[in-house]
Design brief:
alpha+beta, 2,3-Dihydroxybiphenyl 1,2-Dioxygenase, domain 1, 2 domains, five-stranded mixed β-sheet
């Protein structure tokens, strides 16, 4: 059996803001198709789905992130909205970056806020968590090796 990760999907309430945030991180817009129809309803076990998505990709295209904005049915708020890393479920998406400090600075005008602190893990990485659009936690890792 062959397996590869295709993309991660994140539901957001502000698609334009999320595109700007992930664009500032360095992702590139791949496409923005509207999605709806009976097959989509059956796949998701929801009726009347109508969404806009923005497919973002890392430079070189090896990683992709799907940003999804629901028009119908309405999105459901997570509990708690600004959950931390110990809440069950998918809590963060990690990106390797060249410079954690410069990346955090670039994300701040787009709503990016540090969850904790930028820390050094042994002699291997500088790491941090940044809360982005719709409460998403984005992990940033700068290799020190």
């Amino acid at each position: 059996m062959t397996i590869r990760m295709d993309h991660v999907s994140v539901v957001v309430d502000d698609l334009e803001g999320a595109k700007a945030f992930f664009g500032a991180l360095g992702l590139e817009l791949e496409g923005e198709p509207p999605i709806e129809g009976e097959a989509v309803d059956r796949l998701n076990a929801l009726d009347g789905i109508r969404v806009d998505i923005a497919m973002m990709r890392t430079p070189g295209g090896e990683g992709r992130l799907e940003l999804t904005r629901f028009h119908s049915p309405a999105s459901v708020e997570p509990e708690p909205r600004n959950a931390l890393g110990n809440v069950l479920g998918l809590r963060s998406v990690m990106f390797a970056v060249d410079d954690v400090d410069a990346t955090v600075t670039a994300l701040r005008p787009h709503g990016g806020e540090l969850v904790g602190e930028v820390v050094q893990y042994e002699d291997l990485y500088r790491l941090c968590y940044v809360r982005g659009p719709s409460g998403i936690i984005v992990s940033l890792a700068e290799s020190l090796g």
